[in-house]
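Hi V.,

Quick status before I head out on leave. The structure for the redesign project is tokenized and pasted below; the design run finished overnight.
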């Protein structure tokens, strides 16, 4: 009998403990949200107002056009079409979004990038993709896989990852992300295409490059794959 009570007490304490463990600030839905006192010049934390539920229609939860290939005629040979709550209003507050990734044959690239607000699971529909991610400091372990149609690969929250088409045909993938606005930070673009340019000495030391090389990189056009 006593044992039974102990068990119940243990469960109660455990469930309370897990409540405390999961209690945290909600994930941000944009890069930052600077506090302000003046309500008139404020935006909502998630950037969106909610429509009156009685006025919602099926169209609010629907989006068409992901059957259309993205244009990969660019310096990367890649195109990413991300459907966030901006394009699909019914996603607001639900913590999910979707992308279509197109990669040109023989080296089309979705360059190293990370999603500041989301994990990702990728499904290859067509082609052959070399995909990978790198863990954070201090290990920087590389996890890679060659993916064929029907293969999935997971990119954990906020880790740098990439996809390269290593086949002779176009590659297509769909990925789901765990935020209505996961954000995309393309590493090379953020570093070498920063606006204003980062003071070169920061980059010469950080990347073990000479100043001229850094300035040449900074002078290039850094185009996002979206
Ligand atoms: C794809 O983009 C290139 C470069 O911007 C452009 O010249 C071309 O017309 C585009 N193709 C299509 C089918 O839109």
């Amino acid at each position: 009998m006593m044992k039974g009570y102990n068990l119940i007490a243990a469960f109660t304490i455990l469930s309370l403990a897990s409540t405390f463990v999961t209690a945290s600030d909600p994930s941000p839905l944009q890069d930052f949200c600077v506090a302000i006192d003046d309500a008139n010049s404020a935006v909502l934390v998630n950037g969106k107002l909610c429509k009156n539920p009685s006025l919602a229609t099926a169209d609010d939860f629907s989006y068409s056009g992901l059957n259309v290939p993205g244009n990969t005629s660019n310096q990367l040979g890649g195109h990413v079409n991300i459907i966030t709550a901006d394009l699909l209003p019914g996603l607001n507050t639900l913590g999910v979004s979707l992308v279509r990734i197109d990669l040109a044959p023989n080296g089309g690239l979705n360059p190293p990038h990370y999603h500041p607000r989301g994990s990702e699971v990728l499904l290859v529909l067509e082609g052959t993709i070399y995909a990978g991610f790198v863990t954070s400091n201090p290990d920087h372990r590389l996890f890679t896989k060659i993916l064929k149609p029907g293969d999935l690969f997971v990119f954990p929250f906020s880790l740098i990852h990439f996809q390269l088409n290593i086949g002779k045909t176009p590659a297509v993938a769909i990925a789901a992300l765990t935020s209505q606005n996961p954000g995309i930070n393309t590493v090379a673009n953020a570093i070498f295409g920063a606006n204003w340019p980062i003071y070169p000495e920061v980059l010469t030391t950080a990347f073990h490059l000479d100043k001229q090389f850094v300035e040449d990189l900074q002078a290039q056009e850094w185009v996002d794959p979206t």
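Above is the designed sequence. The radius of gyration is 22 Å.

G. will cover questions while I'm gone.

Best,
W.
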